[in-house]
Amino acid sequence: MGRLKIVVLYDRVLVDESEEAAAGDKAPVVRTLDKKEVEEEVAEALTKLGHEPVLYEIDGTTKSLLGLARVDCDLVFNLCESFADDDTADFKIAGFLELIGKKYTGSGTHGLMLAQDKAIAKKIFAFHGIHTPTFAKSYRGRLDFSHDLQFPVIVKPAREDGSIGIEFSAVVNSIRELMERMDWLHANFDSPVLIEEYIDGREMYVGILGNDKPEPLPVVELDLSKLPDGTPRIAAAQVKWGKGTKAYRDTKSAIAADLSEETIASLQQTAVAAYQALELRDYGRVDMRLKPDGGLHVIEVNPNPWLSSRAEFAMAARKAGRTYSQLIEEIVELTTSRA
Ligand SMILES: Nc1ncnc2c1ncn2[C@@H]1O[C@H](COP(=O)(O)OP(=O)(O)O)[C@@H](O)[C@H]1O
Ligand SMILES: [Mg+2]
């Protein structure tokens, strides 16, 4: 492949620190950004590969969109997950890229939209015979459900990501707690609420690379067993973003150990099926829960998973024999080989 001019597209949300501080302890945990940002890592890898990367920030303004339309490039490496603090806007950015005629890495508008709407995604899984927890959806007083639910259940926004809105109190055991939690979510998020049967089990992630023949990467486990007693074993917001908290410190991802060949195969096959069912592209990560009896459930599918070299996806790619730069190159190749 020749030298390509590649725009590394990323989004920034400016957190109003005064507002955050004023909200005090009760504020839901928000995402914080790491020192070495993922876009810099991707750009460095692209430079190493002989390409010409240009960092471009979508800051939530129309101006940043118009500026992007004027940038000349061979390809956009799309790391955008939101627009103007709206986490549901990822597919709109992809749509904008399509309209201005830019080829971009990762899932297209369709895959991004299907994966984002967890209720729709679960209905598609059911069609394909992919196990996913039984659920109900509630939005503005309307309920959507097909089966009875058994407690405990987990109550979460149907369209957020990064465990936003998922605190440890999201797992509830009674109607009263359920109603309190739904009330809290309705007040804090303008999003349908998903009420899902809670799957007690281990947390497993399978990364996928490819299009015609998607390749499942080695299984990564987020070990939640060291969370304090009485805390549900979930990747709550604190586990993902609560730097300095015990929940953050005591949970770690690593290549899953002690799984039988058969379990690995079924996690990987399920992950590929879920990736294909939602029409994802180039790369993705499928999050599952593995029950003690070996049964598994797909919790969610992430198009364009976080590409930090320390995150689960790159970890799995490394285990499968790829350096970080090789992984980035492979994503670029998958994109450029697309008609
Ligand atoms: N039905 C469920 N059973 C058990 N744990 C769940 C369930 N749904 C979510 N979780 C836990 O909550 C975490 C975040 O949920 P998820 O739906 O992936 O939200 P997000 O899109 O914000 O990452 C999961 O990684 C898992 O630990
Ligand atoms: Mg998740």
In short:
With 339 residues, this protein is of the alpha+beta class.
Jot down its keywords:
339 residues, alpha+beta, Rossmann fold, D-amino Acid Aminotransferase, Chain A, domain 1, 3 domains, 5-stranded antiparallel β-sheet, 12 helices, binds adenosine-5'-diphosphate
SSE diagram, text form:
Layout: E1 5-11, H1 17-23, H2 38-48, E2 52-58, H3 62-70, E3 75-78, H4 90-99, H5 109-116, H6 118-127, E4 135-139, E5 142-145, E6 153-157, E7 171-172, H7 175-188, E8 193-197, E9 202-209, E10 215-223, H8 237-241, H9 246-249, E11 252-255, H10 261-277, E12 283-290, E13 296-303, H11 312-319, H12 324-336
Helix pairs in contact: 2-12, 4-5
The protein binds adenosine-5'-diphosphate and magnesium ion (MG).
